[in-house]
Amino acid sequence: MHSDRLDAQRLTHTYGTGDAAAPALADVSITIGAHGPEAVAIMGPSGSGKSTLLHVLAGIVAPDDGRVAWRGRDLATMRDGERTRLRRSDFGFVFQSGQLLPELPAIENVALPLMLGGGSRTGAEAAAGALLHRLGLGDMLTRRPGELSGGQAQRVAIARALVGSPGIVFADEPTGALDRSTGDAVMSLLIGATLGHGASLVVVTHDPEVAAMCSRVVRLQDGRIVSDEPAASAAPPSYGAVRGERVANPARDALQQTWIEASR
Ligand SMILES: Nc1ncnc2c1ncn2[C@@H]1O[C@H](COP(=O)(O)OP(=O)(O)OP(=O)(O)O)[C@@H](O)[C@H]1O
């Protein structure tokens, strides 16, 4: 059994109370990374509970009922400070946009999680610079987010999510603000880089083509999981599952291999 696994059992969550109560999750159980790193897409109609599930899995929102365990430890039994430290050390996050600090250059945005974790500025910036180079942003280290394209900013966000070597990365519509070709490139990079780092990825998306790049697709409806299957059965033929053998994708395989070698 793989140690970097996330186990969620019987999660329920309702926003508000009484007449205003909005049930968002109902009896959701899911395990991520049981057999090694994997890329899992969470799909479903608007309001089906995707973002709520992601936030509960990441320990940002506490479930009303049920439990989430990371590496066998129940997040609810941790003190707030411990959970915050765990999120910083073991979890990475990529959101649609706006997560970078606008006043900081790219390299400092990426170095920040390491410095918040107690690392020296020199060491943190060395690691951040190396990662940004590997993501093709070696010329952009001193640019502030407002001086980057949307795709470049998302690559900086990916570097920031990965710099602390997390065990799992959570992404909420990470390409939702990008055009199709930029979004596809960023998504390939996110999947390749995350798996290349030995971490799992959980990504909320509306986009079937994004889901098809993942190895597994979980569908929600009215706060419940209605299907959980390998991406192969949901994938358009032009895309392959990241870890599957079904459809060759030389560019992605090469990218992932580069990452694995660079991460040694
Ligand atoms: N902060 C909140 N307060 C009250 N209700 C909320 C809140 N956040 C979400 N909800 C409700 O919970 C349900 C699930 O919302 P959630 O954002 O998880 O769905 P989603 O599938 O991510 O939707 P979308 O695809 O539109 O982003 C919806 O009915 C939503 O209106």
TrEMBL record:
GO terms for cellular component: membrane protein complex; plasma membrane. It comes from Agrococcus sediminis. SUPFAM superfamilies: P-loop containing nucleoside triphosphate hydrolases. It comes from the Bacteria. Residues 6-247 form the ABC transporter domain. Coiled coil: none annotated. Transmembrane segments: none annotated. Keywords: ATP-binding, Nucleotide-binding, Transport. This is ABC transporter ATP-binding protein. GO terms for molecular function: ATP binding; ATP hydrolysis activity; transmembrane transporter activity. Pfam families: ABC_tran. CDD domains: ABC_MJ0796_LolCDE_FtsE.
